[in-house]
Amino acid sequence: MISLAPGLGDVIRPGALAFEGVRVADRDDRLDSLLSQAEAAARTRPPADIAAVRTMYRKVGLDPTKRRPSSEALLRRVLRGEPLPRVNTLVDVCNWCSLELQLPYGLYDLDHVEPPIALRLGAPGEHYAGIRKDVVNVSDRLTLADARGAFGNPSADSARTMVTTRTTRALAVVFAPAGLERANLDRALELTSARIRSTAGGVEIGRFVI
Questions:
Q1: Phi-psi category of 183—alpha, beta or left, where left has phi over 0 and alpha has psi -120 to 50?
Q2: What letter does residue 52 receive in the DSSP assignment?
């Protein structure tokens, strides 16, 4: 499903889930209490270990305090007293998992991804249009790319492949540090799959771990 560029095996261990037949809504009231509980838990017992993901960034020469992993950005938001962002049901579920597990997630509309998919370092000057219309620079950064170019990284994803209420086929990627035990990554994927299927329906059609 995803190839890993040479030299990154001691940096990152990606896990991925592919789904078809999902139904994405702007909002699902059933998630409200679950997300509120996750926010309260994070404030009461903040995740202790964010160092592994920061180390993953530093191994490729990035300062994680300047361009934060998406998981840490969510945690900092919640610790400031703000709620998790509500985007749509599929994005909300992945943010929930990312907050709890403190692992960066990427979420993509498979109908806008053109295989093959590779996880590599961005080329000099490489960038893409971000979801919030900003330009995301991925030069020398961990980057997902397809036949059309870069479209995602552990900090920010692209507008081209973002999940919307029109999405029916989706790819969720967990950007796990290489040192994360395989059993822990497997549990993360199982939890994510169960929450996606419970919230958005659909069928898991692929699961991948390097």
A1: alpha
A2: H
CA end-to-end span of the chain: 10
At 121-133, the pLDDT tens digits run: 999 999 999 998 7
Q: What are the C-alpha distances in Å from 27 to residues 125, 136, 165, 180?
A: 37, 27, 10, 32
Residue-wise pLDDT tens digits, 99-144: 999 999 999 999 999 999 999 999 999 999 999 878 999 999 999 9
DSSP track, 113-169: --S--EEEEBPTT-EEEBTTS-EEE-BTSEEEEETTEEEE-SS--BSTT---TT--E
**CATH 3.20.20.80 is the classification of domain 3-209:** no
How far from chain centre, in Å, is Cα 13?
13
Distance in angstroms (rounded) separating the CA atoms of residues 126 and 145: 11
